[in-house]
Specification:
The complex is a heterotrimer of chains A (376), B (341) and C (373). Helix content of chain A is 45%, strand content 16%. With 376 residues, chain A is α/β, with parallel strands linked by helices. The N and C termini of chain A lie far apart (56 Å). Chain B is mostly helical. The chains are: A alpha/beta (376), B mainly alpha (341), C mainly alpha (373). Chains in contact: A-B, A-C, B-C. At the A-C interface, helix 1, helix 4 and helix 5 of A face helix 1, helix 2, helix 7, helix 11 and helix 13 of C.
Chain lengths: 376, 341, 373
């Protein structure tokens, strides 16, 4: 009887491994440069960088065997899936392989094991959007010490824990854009506005909101009253109840600004359901497809985003350039990526930040065209 | 001449009896607390009682209430279903996906979704009754497994409102004579469930199995069948909640309806459904859902710091359950005194 | 109560197999060795299963990736689970007594929040850790008193404190995150013993495991825990102070959860109000995977320790294979259900063959307490 039970348990284990095997056949397993890794130093914050692995990695990269792992804030988030498509296109254009892994919840503590696994496997580069700037820093620094290039995108890891950070748009620019769109939507740039954000600790949203608040101090926006920020955690249900609360707590609210793709959809839906279309407006950052119905319906006459596919493309291209030594990530370096930014060169700025380009503003006139061309 | 002197020791006073009556009826108590809450909050935030606010709150609470009715059946049999949130999310996504692909007309898609919920509930029931896996373990497992199915079906995409038939999410805002459609649906579900629990053998058997499984066996109740049916109904109602969820939110992600299980269980518990089984009513579960939804809304309207939300949520659950226990103790003490008399 | 007779404990507390009901053995000649072998195999059966599964997983891991058996990978897979591992130890005892504590993840978050805000206010980390342990004890005491004094089901009480303690964490920290911890603190949480690939936190877990192993299986405390789990009333009539015991277990769980919160904050060099979200389910999964019966009365610490590594290896392998986390959840869910189904089917198989051999009904009283028939 003991054998039968053990066979059953073995069967369960095999089942679990079948899942793993299916998983590995569905997503291309990261191709690993064999010379890297077994000699990798133990991941500790104070390890010294070793020259050999990076030389091996660059040799591997120039041989077209660059392997890149993309770790978004959260898996199965449409925004990051679109960026990944861009990275995949870049991989096919520039050579190398790219895979995406990540946590099912936007939780930095769940991102770290993926970083560590990628480090163990000795990948060529890690492209990451950090759920929390400092929580991922020790693991990223260990990866860098092992010779792996780290490229941040969308949400930056702490300074010093990446080689280059690809920012989708200039933070001050986004803040001004949010303020301007709110001003456009509020009748005569007058009235109460409030912000529905993502997680309370989200680095990028907090930076954009701060930039927006700074812009609002300008005389042009003096008739806009800022009612405060509520947090929807990028959870559709929480974002919905928060937006409903905003509407009820501030009866004279004119504009809800939601700099998050989940929050802006929730806010627009709430405005529609409350039959406040035309008296309360929504703006912020959203995907064209997600907001298409609300632009046409009038809940969100204007909102912005950038080309998310290009963001992923650029992040991969930067990773490839770092891996094969074209750039080092220092301030002042320039490089060009074919097909992006109209082939204009990029300059690496302070703190090794590269800005993708200006955001697009979507409205009724161009929404259908963008949905068709962006595909998201 | 008959001198009949009846000696009666002093019984509980009027106030005491009132508390006793409230204690026996969790629904009444909760109803009273809700009225009190509305009165107090509307002083500070008059919009709390506005039609638009109440419609929004009760619509969302109605969805949770429907799921809570199903969950309460399971809890009454002394089990638990942690996987309702994954069922709701999966059904919501599947229905939205069907409509996006225009594979079936609306009502057929809804029926498919509800049927899916039923199947998932039966799967839970089978694992628990056939393989004797304790419900906490089984539904802990299916919580992940069903959610994994959801991710698999989603394949990395969400379903946007633009993909759905025009005006799809308007159903969530329909109302008849000022009462939101979803609330009417919830009331229908609750009434039907309450009648079933009261009038049918199944209802009595649910209570029997939850109170004393062995005794139920002895008197010939097929406990395993009752439990299986309870989980099946729970899945069915979660499927209904999933369909409504899709209409309420419009855009559905693979991660939709995360963390709903705790809300549903909390609603049932606050509504008087005892985790120990054998007690509580479906009406109580629904009222519990309404109560928790109102509290959430009240905090938002009173602009209390968001951080206090969880504290108050937790406190409410603890107070509700403690009150239960204290009143039960009091009842037992009084009954014991009465018996000695 | 030392020396109090504890019903049904058998030779060693924590046997994984159900003690056989007494049968008339006189008619059959029984060799001395068979009962011993049977008892030994009964005792170790669940743990053997786990060992086999673990071995299989390790073999599969080496086949999957050449980096599986490396030192750094070992350090990774171990340090990833140390917080839930140490909480699983007292949770095992709580579940054996028939209770549960859902609030551990919120205590993890709360303790991180307290240690972080104290540090930000200039108070040394050591003091912060002591404060946090006291807070953990108080939180556990609150849970324990509600369960034992008011007689409330622990599932509901800890559901409430799950929200309550998380709320406290949010009130203390708000939206901010404390991230500038002293380097030594971070090195402890994230780093290894210099020169090796053994994480510091593994030392903490090892020490605690030894303590719990000894206490649970070798002392009167452990015997009382199993007694309460098997039959609360019989234990009480035997003189076991059930309420005090359970409350003490909740206090210990609270303190260890607080310690885990400190480790978590150290490992990520980050104290946030939502630290630890979702960890309760992982802890409960580990305990159940370790063979502890959710209805109480059965389980071993050894099994839980094996389960810690089994789960950690499984997750590590799935990551190495590039499987996304949602499918990792599916694998763990299947494993969880399988881990309970397998012994049940094995028991059914055994009783079938027993009946076939003896030709009669299984002994009366084979309905386990709380089991659905």
């Amino acid at each position: 009887m003991i054998y039968r039970a053990q066979r059953l348990a073995a069967g369960v284990a095999v089942l679990a491994l079948v899942v793993a095997a299916c998983g590995s056949s569905a997503t291309p397993a990261p191709s690993v440069a064999p010379s890297v890794a077994p000699s990798v130093a133990a991941p500790s914050a104070a390890a010294s960088p070793s020259a050999a692995p990076s030389a091996a990695a660059s040799a591997a990269a120039s041989a077209g065997a660059l392997s890149v792992v993309v770790i978004p804030k959260q898996i199965n988030n449409p925004y990051f899936d679109v960026a990944f498509k861009g990275a995949q296109k870049a991989a096919s254009d520039l050579g190398g392989t790219v895979t995406q892994v990540g946590p099912s919840a936007a939780d930095a503590t769940q991102q770290v094991p993926f970083i560590q696994t990628a480090t163990t496997q000795g990948v060529g580069a890690i492209v990451i959007s950090a759920d929390d700037a400092t929580a991922v820093a020790p693991a990223l620094q260990a990866a860098m010490a092992a010779g792996i290039k780290v490229v941040g995108y969308d949400s930056s890891p702490a300074v010093g824990a990446y080689n280059v950070f690809v920012n989708q748009a200039d933070t001050a620019g986004i803040g001004k854009g949010l303020a301007d769109m709110a001003c456009d939507e509020a009748p005569s740039c007058t009235g109460e506005i409030a912000v529905l954000s993502a997680a309370q600790s989200a680095t990028n949203q907090n930076a954009w909101i701060d930039a927006m608040k700074t812009t609002l101090k300008d005389a042009k926006y003096s008739k806009l009253v800022f009612d405060g920020v509520v947090y929807g955690n990028d959870d559709p249900q929480i974002s919905t109840t928060q937006a409903q609360g905003l509407l009820q707590a501030h009866p004279n609210l004119k504009v809800i600004v939601a700099p998050t793709t989940v929050g802006i959809i929730a806010a627009a839906q709430v405005v529609r359901a409350a039959k406040k279309t035309g008296s309360v407006f929504v703006t912020g950052l959203g995907t064209p497809k997600g907001m298409q119905d609300y632009v046409k319906g009038g809940e969100a006459p204007e909102f912005a985003l950038w080309n998310v596919t290009d963001l992923g493309y650029l992040a991969y291209a930067v990773a490839a350039d770092l891996a094969n030594g074209t750039i080092k990530g220092t301030e002042g370096e320039t490089f060009t990526v074919k097909g992006i930014n109209n082939d204009q060169p990029y300059t690496i700025g302070k703190d090794s930040v590269v800005v993708l380009g200006p955001p697009f503003v979507f409205n009724k006139a161009n929404i259908d065209q963008f949905v068709a061309s962006f595909g998201f | 001449m008959s001198a009949e002197v009846s000696v009666r020791p002093a019984g509980p006073g009027i106030g005491s009896r009132f508390v006793g009556m409230l204690g026996r009826s969790r629904e009444l108590t909760l109803g009273g607390v809700i009225v009190l809450l509305c009165a107090v909050v509307s002083f500070q935030a008059p919009h709390f009682l506005s039609i638009s606010n109440l419609s929004q709150v009760t619509t969302l609470a109605a969805i949770i209430a429907i799921a809570a009715v199903g969950e309460s059946l399971v809890v009454m049999t002394k089990n638990i279903d942690l996987s309702v949130e994954s069922t709701i999310g999966l059904v919501a996504f599947v229905v939205a996906d069907i409509l996006r692909q225009k594979a079936l007309p609306g009502p057929a898609a809804w029926a498919a979704g509800i049927g899916l919920g039923l199947v998932l509930g039966m799967a839970n029931g089978a694992i628990i009754t056939l393989f004797r896996v304790p419900s906490l373990v089984a539904t802990l497992g299916t919580l992940s497994i069903f959610r994994g199915l959801d991710f698999f079906v989603a394949g990395g995409h969400e379903v946007n409102l633009a993909d759905l038939p025009p005006g799809y999410s308007d159903a969530a805002t329909q109302s008849f004579f000022g009462v939101p459609l979803f609330v009417i649906l919830a009331i229908i579900v609750v009434v039907v469930a309450a009648l079933v629990m009261r009038l049918t053998p199944f209802g009595r058997q649910v209570y029997a199995v939850g109170s004393n499984a062995e005794a139920a066996l002895i008197i010939g109740i097929r406990s395993r069948l009752v439990i299986f049916l309870a989980f099946a109904v729970c899945g069915l109602l979660a499927g209904v909640a999933g369909v409504l969820w899709g209409m309420e939110f419009g855009t559905i992600y693979a991660t939709s309806a995360t963390n709903v299980s705790l809300q549903v269980i909390a609603a049932a518990v606050v509504g008087g459904v005892a985790i120990a089984g054998g007690a509580g009513t479906v009406v109580g579960a629904a009222v519990g859902a309404l109560f928790l939804g109102l509290i959430n809304n009240a905090l938002l309207l009173l602009q209390m710091p968001q951080e206090l939300l969880q504290v108050i949520y937790g406190a409410v659950i603890l107070v509700a359950v403690s009150a239960d226990a204290l009143i039960q103790r009091r009842e037992r003490r009084l009954t014991a005194q009465g018996a000695i008399r | 109560m030392t020396g109090a007779p504890v019903p049904g404990s058998g030779a060693a507390a924590g046997e994984a197999a159900r003690p056989e009901a007494t049968r008339p053995e006189a008619a059959r000649p029984v060799s001395v060795r068979r009962p011993l072998l049977q008892r030994a195999s009964g005792l170790l059966r669940w743990e053997t299963l786990l060992l086999v599964v673990l071995a299989l997983l390790v073999v599969e891991g080496t086949r999957l990736s050449k980096f599986f058996l490396t030192g750094p990978n070992f350090a990774n897979l171990v340090s990833a689970v140390m917080e839930v591992a140490i909480v699983a130890l007292p949770m095992t005892l709580i579940i054996i007594t028939g209770e549960i504590d859902l609030s551990v993840e919120s205590m993890i978050g709360l303790s991180g929040a307290i240690v972080g805000s104290l540090w930000a206010a200039g108070i040394p980390i050591e003091v912060g850790i002591v404060v946090v342990l006291i807070v953990g004890a108080l939180g556990g005491l609150f849970n324990g008193l509600l369960v034992t004094r008011l007689g409330l089901p622990s599932l509901v009480v800890t559901l409430g404190t799950l929200a309550l303690y998380r709320g406290f964490a949010q009130v203390i920290l708000g939206p901010t995150a404390i991230s500038s911890f002293p380097a030594g603190f971070t090195a402890f949480g994230f780093g290894n013993i210099p020169g090796t690939t053994i994480p510091w936190t593994l030392i903490v877990f090892s020490v605690l495991s030894v303590v719990f192993l000894l206490v649970t299986h070798r002392t009167w405390i452990g015997r009382q825990v199993f007694a309460v789990g098997k039959n609360k009333d019989a234990a009480r009539y035997s003189g076991v102070r059930v309420g005090t015991l359970k409350t003490a277990l909740f206090v210990v769980t609270g303190m260890i959860a607080a310690l885990a919160g400190v480790i978590l904050a150290a490992r990520f060099s980050s104290a946030r109000a939502d630290n630890g979200t979702g960890l309760t389910l992982v802890v409960v999964t580990i305990v159940l995977l370790g063979g502890v019966d959710i209805n109480g009365g059965k389980g071993t610490i050894a099994g839980v320790i094996l389960a810690v590594f089994t789960l950690s290896v499984l997750q590590n392998e799935l990551r190495l294979a590039g499987v996304s986390s949602e499918y990792q959840g599916v694998a763990v869910g299947l494993l969880l259900i399988g881990s309970v189904t397998a012994p049940y089917l094995a028991r059914q198989a055994r009783s079938y063959s027993d009946r076939a051999r003896r030709g009669r009904q299984p002994p009366a009283g084979s309905v386990e307490r709380g089991e659905v028939v």
